[in-house]
Specification:
With about 850 residues, the chain is of the alpha+beta class. It is built from 25 helices and 28 strands. One of its GO terms (biological process) is autophagy.
């Protein structure tokens, strides 16, 4: 029976067509399941949720008439079995040979132009000889009855309206289309009348730091008062401590711009009040208030706009291996990715990621299981989309060599079967960039930032017993020394890549560089064309030496002196990762906020040995800095105090507490660590925890002399002062409705200061005991918990690392062309089957001259000892 059904589904289906008079009666039982798309619905009529099948594919595409999800013929039955949804619209594009004598044209004719308005044409066809014929029909499961469309007379009115709405719907990826992105980014309601305080704040072009902690990345400039504060924190502790959002909640200043994203074309602006990325038409004026002159940024070093020309022609040619005839590569692992408009930063990272066996096994190896346990909307599930992308790149299904001319001629006599070369990562990009102010835009981004963003998503959605991102994780030992007392402190932190500074002072062609700079200035003054570029040649050994040298610690407070003092910090590897990612720090900001790129050549080695950078820990003769917290400075509070005669509850940075709790430490210990280190951030508090773990009262509640008696007396009258207030009942009810136990919901909300989003992250990283989690999983809502049955249990043993030898072999690198990460283009070179291959969007070719010295991010694998 199943074979007969599949034959009816995948064959012509003409025997299954119903008589016209029976159509209305046939559809009556299914009418409640057929919906008309509303304005907020996304209709996926061009791509399968599980694969890259489309109406162009041999089996066409099936669109569910209830959820409007698209499925290739290999995946539609899974959706039918899981949901019971019976009615699908089958869409198929045929490419046929033109009738002899038909007039030629620039594009193939479309006979049914209303069907696929946003379906891309196949550029490989000879447009003079072939034309399109689009076909649509309703298919009813499980008997696979087919109803050709349009069929207005026989179909019920509701079905006709629903079909017309599906066929005329717009692309669900409108935000990623270059022509429509600016329309999607709404102008903030605060932009026109934004109040800016005249407080004399001037923002420098570099050297930023969060004013409430020590973070130097993911920083946001508040456009009202000029405060520089860190952004949202992530599951693995990266990203930030959320001080920018806290500042808004305290002061109500709505708009902030991300530092590092300011270009002549604009900047990434976020509205805390509107809770979304927004457009600010007055951004130039708002930035000028704090000394940032965007008008000067319209001009690059040679006086021409960066996005109109290729200012460094030689760099573009060398990295893309222009002028050399490259042999195209086809088959598994040699699949290109379409550039969606400045999406090459995503493509090169994903090509590198899926060349690593651990990621191949985690997603492509587990593909059947991931797909079977996917939620009802697989387009919104990270693991499903990772498995889909990995399969698309590795299967070879979308990387087939062109057919021989005689075969093409034979096939074209009947019907053209289009070649599927390359994949379009629209669905993947739409999901992984959702809600991110930078990656959701259509502007070029930093591949290094996207790499860390992806690792964060992998961490949050881990499956199975192993996490593939473990291969990148390593521990860094930081040794801080007080220059006056000579005492030291050792701390450890987690990292995923090694950032190498560019040692410009060690350039081997210094005389040539000086001569070139003189000629360049003379040519600029005389308005002559610039001389031929001379690129600085930097020894890799000098960059490695610069990495290992001590650096000054700003605002260092010495516990030995009980005062601020000069301090230096050195970094070493407490563990070596299985795969070492090395970033060359080429990007910086010059005067007047002009983004600059150091156009240098670094002789990166094929074989790398960094065993000499192994951490040693406290050495004989070294004396540790006393474990004394710096004094807590309590700022004046301008607000009226409800009980100014009582002592206020201690101010504890709950976001830092949360980060420490995610590592598996007891909640009360985390609160004490943050309190006793003066809210200086999770990293400082982590050091306190390491130093006090063996103490008998390590996990006891925080006890502050002089506070408890006052708090208990006040609580009797007010009922509001205390450290452990009960979370709001509506939040508890919301979490329990998702299938979690009440005690778990209360514990999670308490641990995250009643932040619902953080509480859900906390629950997934603090699994229940085994006997309790089994009963909870029975009632877990699959729709709200993607891949719920295979979510991994995060261990509480601390960071997972795979330590080993520090000897590595180069197997890939990502290169950037252009003057800034906000513009230009990325390509990727990977070593496969003993030879280098270049991945340049859809083009995948054997590399003849891999430019190893011009890379931006390098990927090394450990050499087995």
């Amino acid at each position: 029976l199943q074979c007969m059904q599949r034959a009816a589904l995948f064959g012509s289906g003409r025997d299954a067509q119903m008589a016209a008079g029976d159509l209305g009666e046939l559809l009556v039982p299914y009418m409640p399941t057929i919906r008309v798309p509303k304005s907020g619905d996304r209709v996926y009529k061009t791509e399968c949720a599980f694969s890259y099948e489309s109406p162009d594919s041999e089996g066409g595409l099936y669109v569910c008439m209830n959820t409007f999800l698209g499925f290739g013929r290999e995946h539609v039955e899974r959706h039918y079995r899981k949901t019971g949804q019976c009615v699908y619209m089958h869409l198929k594009r045929h490419v046929i040979e033109k009738v002899p004598g038909a007039s030629g044209g620039a594009l193939p004719k479309r006979r049914n132009t209303v069907l696929f308005l946003d379906l891309e044409t196949n550029g490989d066809l000879n447009n003079d000889d072939f034309e399109y014929e689009d076909e649509a029909k309703l298919v009813i499961f499980p008997d696979h009855y087919e109803i050709p469309l349009p069929n207005i007379e026989e179909l019920p009115a509701l079905v006709t309206i629903a079909c017309d709405a599906v066929l005329s719907s717009k692309s669900p990826y409108r935000k990623q289309d270059p022509d429509s992105w600016e329309e999607e980014l709404q102008v903030s309601k605060h932009a026109k009348a934004l109040v800016q305080i005249d407080n004399g704040v001037r923002i420098p072009p570099s050297g930023w730091k969060c004013s409430k902690c020590d973070l130097r990345e993911n920083l946001w400039l508040n456009l009202t008062d000029g405060s520089v504060l860190c952004g949202k924190w992530f599951f693995d502790g990266s990203g930030g401590n959320g001080h920018a959002l806290e500042h808004y909640k305290e002061m109500g200043y709505p708009l902030a711009v991300k530092l590092g994203t300011i270009t002549p074309d604009g900047a990434d602006v976020y509205s805390f009040d509107e809770e979304e990325a927004v457009s600010d038409p007055h951004i130039a004026k708002h930035l000028a208030h704090f000394g940032i002159d965007m008008l000067q940024m319209h001009v690059t070093e040679n006086g021409l706009r960066d996005n109109n020309i290729k200012p460094r022609i030689s760099e573009w040619e060398v990295i893309q291996e222009s002028g050399v005839k490259l042999k195209p590569m086809y088959g598994p692992g040699y699949t290109g990715m379409k550039n969606l408009g400045n999406s090459c930063y995503l493509s090169v990272v994903m090509q590198a990621i899926f060349s690593i066996p651990e990621f191949q096994r985690a997603y492509v190896g587990n593909l059947p299981r991931i797909f079977d346990y996917s939620p009802l909307d697989p387009t919104q599930d990270f693991n499903t989309q990772m498995a889909k992308l990995g399969h698309g790149l590795l299967s070879g299904q979308y990387s087939k060599p062109p057919m021989k001319s005689e075969l093409i001629e034979q096939v074209m006599k009947e019907e053209h079967k289009p070649q599927h070369n390359g994949i379009s990562p629209r669905m993947f990009k739409a999901f992984v960039s959702k809600g991110h102010p930078e990656f959701s835009s259509n502007r070029q981004q930093d591949a290094q930032e996207f790499f860390l963003h992806l690792i964060n998503l992998v961490e949050r959605n881990r499956i199975g017993s192993e996490n593939p991102s473990d291969v990148f994780r390593f521990l860094v030992e930081e040794r801080t020394q007080c220059c006056q007392s000579r005492k030291v402190r050792y701390t450890e932190r987690v990292d995923y890549l090694m950032q190498l500074p560019v040692a410009m002072e060690a350039a081997m062609n210094r005389d040539e560089l000086i001569a070139y700079e003189l000629k360049r200035r003379e040519a600029e003054a005389a308005r002559r064309p610039p001389p031929e570029l001379v690129r600085a040649k930097i020894p890799f050994s000098a960059c490695l030496q610069a990495f290992s040298e001590p650096e000054n610690v700003e605002d260092f407070w010495s516990s030995a002196l009980q005062a601020k003092s000069a301090g230096v910090k050195t970094s070493r590897f407490a563990s070596f990762p299985e795969y070492l990612v090395v970033q060359i720090k080429k990007f910086t900001f010059g005067l007047d906020w002009i983004p600059q790129k150091l156009d240098v050549s670094v002789d990166m080695p094929d074989l790398l040995d960094i065993n000499h950078l192994r951490a040693t820990g406290l050495q004989a003769g070294e004396e540790e800095l006393p474990d004394i917290a710096p004094p807590i400075i309590i700022p004046d509070d301008p607000k009226d105090r409800m009980m100014n005669h009582f002592m206020e509850p201690p101010d504890i940075d709950e976001s830092s507490v949360m980060q420490l709790a995610e590592m598996g430490f007891p909640l009360e210990a985390c609160r004490k660590a943050v309190y006793y280190t003066g809210n200086m951030g999770a990293e400082v508090a982590f050091n306190w925890i390491i130093a006090h773990m063996e103490e008998p009262d390590f996990a006891e509640p925080l006890a502050i002399p002089g506070y408890e008696a006052v708090a208990s007396a006040g609580a009797a009258g007010l009922g509001a002062i205390g450290l452990d207030n009960q979370p709001p009942e509506e939040m508890v009810a919301l979490i329990t409705s998702m299938g979690f136990q009440r005690n778990v919901a209360i514990q999670a909300l308490k641990a995250t200061n009643n932040n619902l989003e953080h509480a859900l992250d906390w629950i997934f990283s603090h699994p229940e005991p085994e006997e309790e989690s089994e009963s909870a999983s029975d009632v877990m809502d699959m729709e709200n918990n993607a891949n719920a049955n295979i979510l991994a249990e995060a261990g509480s043993e601390g960071p997972r690392i795979k330590d080993g030898s520090g000897r590595y072999e180069l197997f890939g690198f990502i290169s950037h062309m252009g003057t800034s990460t906000m513009s230009g283009h990325y390509v990727c070179h990977l070593k496969k089957e003993g030879r280098w291959v270049i991945y340049n969007d859809l083009k995948v070719c054997a590399s003849e001259r891999p430019p190893r010295d011009l890379g931006y991010i390098y990927f090394y694998r450990r050499i087995p000892s």
